[in-house]
Amino acid sequence: MVESESAWRGALYGPAGFFTRGEVPADHFRTAPLVGPELAEALLVLLDRVDAALGRPDRVDFVDVGAGGGELAAAVRELAPRSLAPRLVVTAVDVGPARSLPGVAWAREAPSSVRGLLVGHEWLDAVPCPLVTGPSDDPWLARWWPVREGERAEVGAPRDAAWAGAVARVAAGAALAVDYGHVRADRAAGRYAAGTFAAYRGGRRVEPVFDGSCDLTAHVALDACAAAAGGDRVLVSQRDALGALGLTGSVDPAAPDWLAAAERASRVAELRAVGGLGSFGWLLHGVGVPVSALLPPLPPWRP
Ligand SMILES: C[S@@+](CC[C@H](N)C(=O)[O-])C[C@H]1O[C@@H](n2cnc3c(N)ncnc32)[C@H](O)[C@@H]1O
Q1: How far is residue 236 CA from its own chain's centroid?
Q2: Contact 31 CB / ligand 1 (< 6 Å)
Q3: Domain annotation for the chain: domains and CATH numbers
Q4: Cα dist. 135→56, 85, 194 in Å?
Q5: Which residue has the higher pLDDT, 168 or 248?
Q6: Ligand 1 touching residue 220 (CB < 6 A)
Q7: 250 phi and psi, to 5 degrees?
Q8: Is the beta carbon of 216 within 6 A of some atom in ligand 1?
Q9: Is the CB of 95 under 6 A from ligand 1?
Q10: Closest ligand 1 atom to the C-alpha of 120?
Q11: What is the CA 294 to chain-centroid distance, rounded?
Q12: Which of left, alpha, beta for 173 (phi over 0: left; psi -120 to 50: alpha)?
């Protein structure tokens, strides 16, 4: 393991690490599950399509890997429609302390055989990786992120392995990684020549230190994760994916509670904002279920 990777891992996941201690995004940065229930609603639409493709089995899993405070898992549990709720098993997976949420099981590892939908929401950006300054002869960089003299980059191989391992746990259904990141064309063009490694504490970007006092993160090479996990898959923007799942953000002028409808529309707009959460990537793999049964054709992700 490269020294920077082990320092990063120790800072987040060592005995006194940032996430080991139980720090959660809610206290340090804003993620989509904290915006409101709308992301969970969209994932329930996706889960319904998975459920239908699986023939509405007796048990349907929703597994949230890297669950943080468990907000997404809890909202999926709470909002599950009556047709699904009795068959739905929700598991939140995190290496941090277990939290007590009604109807949500906590685990430190994803179940070995998932039938339903496994989601990694802003999980992969928290998987530590080697930090390099070019030139470098690293084979992952040679394939995915050509670096020139003096340019900085993160070696995404540990994310590829983490994601491939998670997708391999899906016996039938789908796996979805949602994260901020980049694609090879933009990396190769030098758009990320300074690297993307960053630290956050208390809602602010801070100078990275490896002492467990801040979150350490970097953009995710989702195209490399896609290739590592293989199979039938698409990589699209959150903006397009949410639109395809029915979250368009338009306000019905005849809505009985117009104010509530307008508030909801503004949360949907935040989730779909170009340059913000809407520019996150959705990497969706189908396992025994064609991705075309889950999402219509959408333009490829280009953050
Ligand atoms: C950036 S937070 C995202 C939390 C939440 N999904 C959200 O979007 O608000 C990343 C989370 O992934 C967890 N994590 C990192 N590696 C993990 C692993 N191998 N297994 C389970 N959880 C992990 C961390 O402990 C942390 O809570």
Answers
A1: 13
A2: yes
A3: 3-293 (3.40.50.12710)
A4: 52, 53, 13
A5: 168
A6: no
A7: -80, 145
A8: no
A9: yes
A10: 6
A11: 17
A12: left
